[in-house]
Specification:
The protein is of the alpha+beta class. It is 34% helix and 24% strand. Strand 11 and strand 12 form a beta hairpin. The protein binds 2-acetamido-2-deoxy-beta-D-glucopyranose (5 copies).
């Protein structure tokens, strides 16, 4: 074991101990909205992207504005790679081998990644790595809830950067902090009319959080699972490419699905490179579900069922029929706060309260997004989690 591995091992142990000792579960927050105070880091800027434009140039404006932050982020990823494989061989591999993969990515993603590489000056292999990164390292909380009038709301915290560089001075995750300035809201248009909106990281062409106004809302959470796991990604690199990138599927669904049912079908049946959770909300009563995916298909679809008293579905990173990992239980506190809120009082505002309660809000939380399908509204906020706050 080299010294950086040893450091990570000790660090992980220290974090686990801290978490056990302090618990850091707090009383359900109230009155947090409109966002303000120490857990609100700032607003997320909006950009428009025209789907009529050549994919190579679609992202030009976003990249031009966020180039500095993007290059800084890539630098951190490379430093992390070099600290794991000090010879620099990993980065060399990325620069030499990954570019060959570009043409195997589906259109328009291949062209978009190429365009972002050209506009930012970041080598194409590193841009592909950056895009793979988000597919596999996010731990999150998502919820779809129905109010007493049948309106559907969808909220999510995007938590990212686990075990990737800890800043001892101000107790923050290096990667999480670097991601905040890369967060952008995008209004994707065709014929100058909104098709869908998303909260994205500049440089990433997939979608983790999005709304198709009047039709559906969609978020994706990582599913850590040995059955499949990262095998699909390795297979893709060595040439077996029959599965789809998860974030490319969500983007395709947001761009081209015509209804909640159509979205549900595509998200359930398309073969994937790795397992995932898709959290989907529709525009009518009862339309909200968590799709638990294996690489092949849906293992389970868990839906809102008012008759059973289930007026919301909530997903973190564990199968809903199993207990969460005891060191990472964000589900119980989030559900406790949802239950305490009650269906009569649920709204984007009270969902923001739930998503602001530690440890649902934690050191990894990059942004909180709130979506309301009937108005087409998507709003997102950058987050901070000052101490005492759980590392995840
Ligand atoms: C912690 O320090 C780093 C490096 O100076 C900075 O980028 C980051 O924004 C800080 N984070 C917080 C939460 O203060
Ligand atoms: C697109 O729509 C906006 C308002 O919705 C309008 O201000 C703008 O001129 C339109 N652009 C084009 C190219 O039609
Ligand atoms: C959506 O459909 C259009 C028209 O068929 C196609 O050009 C576009 O590439 C599709 N979008 C995605 C992300 O696959
Ligand atoms: C809900 O979605 C369906 C398509 O599934 C659409 O026909 C209908 O107009 C939508 N309803 C509202 C209120 O937007
Ligand atoms: C929340 O309420 C649901 C439905 O009544 C129940 O199944 C669940 O155990 C409750 N969870 C918590 C953490 O209170």
């Amino acid at each position: 074991m080299n010294s950086s591995c040893l450091f990570y091992a000790f660090w992980t142990l220290a974090v686990l101990l801290t978490r056990c000792l302090h618990g850091q579960t707090e009383e359900c927050k109230t009155g947090m909205y409109p966002p303000k105070g120490s857990t609100f880091k700032g607003n997320v800027p909006w950009y428009a992207i025209s789907l009529d434009e050549d994919p190579v140039h679609r992202w030009d404006t976003v990249v031009k504005d966020r180039k500095y932050e993007l290059v800084a982020m890539i630098q951190v990823i490379k430093e992390l790679a070099n600290s794991l494989v000090p010879s620099g061989k990993l980065v060399a591999l990325v620069d030499n081998v990954l570019p060959l993969m570009l043409d195997t990515l589906p259109y328009p993603f291949n062209k978009e990644i190429l365009g972002i590489s050209l506009a930012s000056g970041v080598p194409v292999g590193e841009m592909i790595l950056f895009n793979i990164f988000y597919e596999v390292f996010s731990v999150c909380t998502s919820v779809v809830a129905e109010d007493a009038n049948g309106n559907l709301y969808h909220g999510r915290n995007l938590d990212f950067g686990l075990l990737m560089g800890w800043n001892h001075k101000n107790h923050s995750w290096t990667l999480t902090e670097k991601l905040k300035p890369l967060t952008v809201n995008i209004d994707f248009k065709r014929n100058n009319i909104t098709v869908f909106k998303s909260t994205n990281f500049a440089g990433y062409v997939g979608i983790l959080t999005g709304i198709r106004p009047n039709l559906f809302t969609l978020t994706m959470n990582e599913r850590f699972n040995i059955d499949g796991g990262y095998v699909g990604i390795l297979e893709w690199i060595i040439g077996k490419r029959d599965g789809m990138w998860m974030g490319f599927l969500t983007r395709t669904v947001l761009e081209n699905a015509t209804s909640y049912e159509d979205a549900k079908k595509q998200l359930s049946l398309t073969k994937l490179l790795a397992p995932a959770y898709f959290i989907l909300g529709g525009n009518q009563t009862g339309q909200g579900c968590v799709i638990t995916r294996t690489r092949i298909n849906a293992l389970d679809v868990w839906e809102i069922e008012l008759k059973l008293g289930r007026w919301y579905v909530l997903e973190t990173n564990y199968d809903h029929w199993e207990k969460p990992f005891f060191l990472d239980d964000r589900r119980t506190p989030a559900m406790k706060c949802m239950n305490k809120t009650t269906q009569a009082n649920i709204s984007p505002k009270t969902i923001y309260d739930v998503l602001s309660t530690r440890p649902v809000l934690n050191k990894l939380t990059t942004y909180t997004t709130l979506m309301e399908v009937s108005t087409g509204n998507l709003e997102s906020y950058l987050r901070d989690c000052p101490d005492p706050c759980s590392p995840w």
